[in-house]
Amino acid sequence: MNGTAPNTAPPALPTLPPVRPSGPLARLGWAAADGWTVARRDVLHWLRQPWELLFGLLFPVLMVLMFVYLLGGAMSVPGGGDYTEYLMPGMFAMVMVFGLGETVTAVTTDSTRGVTDRFRSMPMASSAVVVGRCLADMLRSTVTLVILIGFGMLVGWQWHGSAGAALAGFGLLLLLRFALVWIGIYVGLVMRGQGGIALIQTLEFPIGFLSNAFVATATMPVWLGAVADWNPMSSTVAAARELFGNPAVAGDSWITQNALLMAVVWPVLLVAVFAPLCVHRYRNLSG
């Protein structure tokens, strides 16, 4: 004997991946937990680097100041009313649209850095990454909207209806953002590079300005006004103005007469199309 104690440690057991839940409720809970884990990663990133959120707010704040104080004196609302109150619901919707670029940038950055491929190699729900991305963007959009609402009040905007109607208006704005998030995720997954970011940033302005956000569509040429009326953003803006009790210009077309209905229908249709496309695209990424 050499005086050393024999190695009595048990052999290491192989590490097995977690078993995928079998029941539908168990799978749903598994996907929700994984989705929140992905979303929490982005929330922690914002807490460590809050200036990104502040810089994202700088542009809409400058837009409000420009339209209220530089251009507002030359603007008039058909039928009468304060232009600042007419403008702010449109600015709230514009912020929801400009969030598209942030979504595409985040998805593209994760892809180019290999984070998306790492997620795909892990034993997690295949929907967790896109759901987590959506949840994180909605949290950020809610914070941005709340801050911009406070700034709007500072420059003279207010709602005149009930608190319930105002909350419904804010809900419609976030519903539009929810639909646009799925479009942004899909573009980021399909165009995994700077091309997707450039495409969305190029389209944000025509989508936002070709609407009733800043001027009534009745002041546009007839054909252009018809295009603007059928912009989903226009339905959300018109519905928000109605719920806030702000000045609104109702057109004669069916789409403008049913703004509240279409402010719900448009986002639901977009989510129904792009959410499954996002999950399918993520499952079939080629690396």
UniProtKB/TrEMBL annotation:
It comes from the Bacteria. It is found in: Cell membrane; Membrane. Pfam families: ABC2_membrane. GO terms for molecular function: ABC-type transporter activity. The chain crosses the membrane at residues 53-74, 86-107, 166-191, 203-224, 259-279. Its main location: membrane. One of its GO terms (biological process) is response to antibiotic. Keywords: Antibiotic resistance, Cell membrane, Membrane, Transmembrane, Transmembrane helix, Transport. InterPro entries: ABC2_TM, ABC2_TM_bact-type, ABC_2_transport, Nod_factor_ABC_transporter. One of its GO terms (cellular component) is ATP-binding cassette (ABC) transporter complex. It is a multi-pass membrane protein. Residues 51-285 form the ABC transmembrane type-2 domain. Belongs to the ABC-2 integral membrane protein family. This is Transport permease protein. The lineage of its organism: Bacteria, Bacillati, Actinomycetota, Actinomycetes, Streptosporangiales.
